[in-house]
Amino acid sequence: KAEWDAKKIKGMVLDLRDNPGGYLDSSVYLASDFLKEGDLIVKQESSYGSSREYHSDRNGRLLDIPLVVIINRGSASASEILAGALRDHKKATLIGEKSFGKGSIQEAIDLQKGAGLHITVAKWILPGGDWINSKGIEPKIKVENEIKEGNTLTDEDDKQLKKAVDLLTDNK
């Protein structure tokens, strides 16, 4: 924040590629750094008919910083909630590839003899009303990376990151 205030940086890149998610509370906390207090981050609609909304609990420290979020098909669940909330509140430009599309909540039930069952009990709805399950989030700017050798992406080959930096530094 101090670097932004001192005009030492032009913006921020939030890289959510290959982030399979995590805890909902973490995505709500991170989204809150870019949103105003009370902004809707995600709504949980239960299969039982009840729903719960998650809102920013504070005014974000980074409300005015230009932000680009990079997503790909490995971005799922909580990372999609974060990217989707920032997109829907017009706080970030999404770059990359369509995300995975994990918009549901499962409950694990242990059965006899080591068996288990996962039952979908709720779904995540983004602030703009999208349920991303099985369809993912489309980035505003589509950029695909090609990995040339092995399975490692080098700085020189990272077209998504280069595009994100170019957007923030006016090298469009």
Fraction in helix: 10-25%
Question: SSE string, helix = H, strand = E?
Answer: HEHEEEHEEEEH
Poorly predicted spans: none
> What is the strand arrangement across the widest sheet?
1-4-5-8
Estimated structural class: alpha/beta
Radius of gyration: 18 Å
Straight-line N-to-C gap? 25 Å
How many helices? The count is: 4
Main beta sheet strand tally, sense and closure: 4 strands, parallel
Shape: globular
* Strand element count: 8
Strand content: 25-35%
Question: Could you characterize what this model shows?
Answer:
The chain is an alpha/beta fold. It is 20% helix and 26% strand. The chain contains four helices and eight strands; from the N terminus they run H-E-H-E-E-E-H-E-E-E-E-H. The chain has a four-stranded parallel β-sheet, sandwiched between helices. Strands 3-2-7-6 form a four-stranded antiparallel β-sheet. Helix 2 (24-32) runs parallel beside helix 3. The two termini are 25 Å apart.
What are the salient characteristics of this protein?
172 residues; alpha/beta; four-stranded parallel beta sheet; four-stranded antiparallel beta sheet; 20% helix; 26% strand
